[in-house]
Amino acid sequence: MEFEAQRDGLIEELRLLGISECVLDAMRRVPRHLFVPESEWKYAYADYPLPIGWGQTISAPHMVAIMCDLLDIRDGMKTLEIGAGSGYHAAVMAMLAGSGHVYAVEVIEGLAEFARRNLKKAGITNVTVVSGDGSLGLPEYAPYDRINVACAAPDILDTLTDQLKSGGKLVIPVGRYFQELYLVTKVDGLKKEAKGGVVFVPLVGKKGFPA
Questions:
Q1: 23 lies in a domain?
Q2: Owning domain of residue 43
Q3: Which one, of 80, 155, 90, 150, lies nearest residue 120 by Cα?
Q4: What is annotated as the active site (predicted)?
């Protein structure tokens, strides 16, 4: 009950930011504390990033909400996430996708396994976590309706836009230390919209930044 009350409080904070009700409902249904180490549980519903091990963090809830809002994930969609982390962002997207599926790529094997365990604990079955180089996307399941990148890329990567369906959307932070968040829509080429400054850990891989 304590966690439920904290989660409800977080949802009300996010509502003040103008987040859509469908995203708020998805976030209400995902127990964020199950996606952070137990030592961080008391902070799980605070609106800031938390350490999850391996030198990585779970994004602040407002950032997850904003990115999901931009993507406009709908029931039945096939979605790709780059940078699975602890699995929380993928879990929220899975709620939005409903009968669809989320594929999440994580370059750190230990973190990928952590995400799998967390998703299982949360009872979420429509997410597949794959260990690999997210800068290359996940071509074996392409094309995707939506692609979310939860780490900073050096550019809007053609390896990812090539894996989008026509009409599909990509959200990606671009930059090395401070980034601009872009919404990219695949219609008659690529429509690119800057959505504001953000800070993410770097995307490591062949098309990303060196480790």
A1: yes
A2: 2-198
A3: 90
A4: 59
59 is catalytic: yes
pLDDT in the model for residue 1: 60
What pLDDT shows up at residue 2?
82
So what's the pLDDT on residue 92? 98
Domain for residue 49, yes or no?
yes
Q: What is the CATH number of the domain that holds 139?
A: 3.40.50.150
Structural domain count of the chain: 1
Predicted pLDDT of residue 10: 96
pLDDT mean by block of 10 residues, the chain; 211 residues:
89 96 97 96 96 94 98 98 98 98 97 98 98 97 98 97 98 95 96 96 94 76
Query: Is residue 208 one of the residues assigned to a domain?
Result: no
Dihedral of CA atoms 44, 50, 55, 56 in degrees, nearest 10, equals 80
Q: What pLDDT score does 177 carry?
A: 85
Run of H or E including 11: helix 2-15
For 117, counting Cβ atoms within 10 Å of its Cβ (0-12 exposed, 13-18 middle, 19+ buried), the class is middle
| Alpha carbon distance 102, 88 (integer Å) | 12
Which string of DSSP letters, residue by residue, matches 120-161? Answer: HHTT--SEEEEES-GGG--GGG--EEEEEE-SBBSS--HHHH
Largest CA distance in the chain: 49
Question: Is residue 210 situated within a structural domain?
Answer: no
